[in-house]
Every structure is written in C-alpha cells, then in structure tokens.
Amino acid sequence: MLLPDRDTIDRLLRSYRAQERAILARPGDPAVHRRFEDTAYTLCVLMGVRGAPEAVHAAEHYLAEPRPAVPALTPGDGSARAGGVGAG
C-alpha cells in the first residue's frame, strides 16, 4: 500500500490549522474559505477519508506513528535491470 509523504501531510495539517484561524479572523472572506476547503479536500484524499475532521484525526495519528524503516538498495539485489534505463 502506498502511504502519503509525511512531510506533505505535516505541511498540509499545519496549513489546515492556520486556515482555521484565518476563517475565525475573517469569516466573510470567500478566498479564505476556498483555500481552507481546498486544503481540507487534499488532506481527505491523501488520508483516504471523506470528511475533514476524519482526515485531520487520521493525519495526526499517521504523523504520531514511528517512521517505518526503509531498506537500502544494494548492488546485485535484483532491484535494477541490467543495462540501465532504456536498455533494450
């Protein structure tokens, strides 16, 4: 399963929180609402949920989890095709 980039989720979550504050400061500004809704939608898509509250909750839990170890690729492990890109 593909997982979203942690730095992207962190950035979006911070942006979402900042935009929440902006809406409280400027409740009648349609540009602020549009930006907030766009960020909420992106967070929903990346977290695989339908609503902003669930997306925020999922993002917070995702960021709280320890980062999984990623094995390093080593020469000869079969991860690359002989001849390189475009060989054929």
Explain what the structure shows.
- This protein is an all-alpha fold.
- It has a domain at 6-64.
- It is 58% helix and 0% strand.
- The protein has three helices and no strands.
- It has helices at 6-25, 30-47, 52-64.
- Helix 1 runs antiparallel to helix 2 (30-47), helix 1 crosses helix 3 and helix 2 (30-47) crosses helix 3.
- The model has no long low-confidence stretch (mean pLDDT 86).
Q: How would the blueprint of this fold be written?
A:
Elements: H1 6-25, H2 30-47, H3 52-64
Helix pairs in contact: 1-2, 1-3, 2-3
From the helix content, strand content and strand pairing, which structural class follows?
mainly alpha
Got a strand count?
A: 0
State the shape: elongated
Give a quick account of the main beta sheet: strands, pairing sense, barrel closure. none
Helix content: 55-70%
Mean pLDDT: 86
Proportion of β residues? under 5%
Task: Give a brief rundown of this model.
The chain is 58% helix and 0% strand. It is mostly helical and 88 residues long.
Features of the shown structure:
elongated, mainly alpha
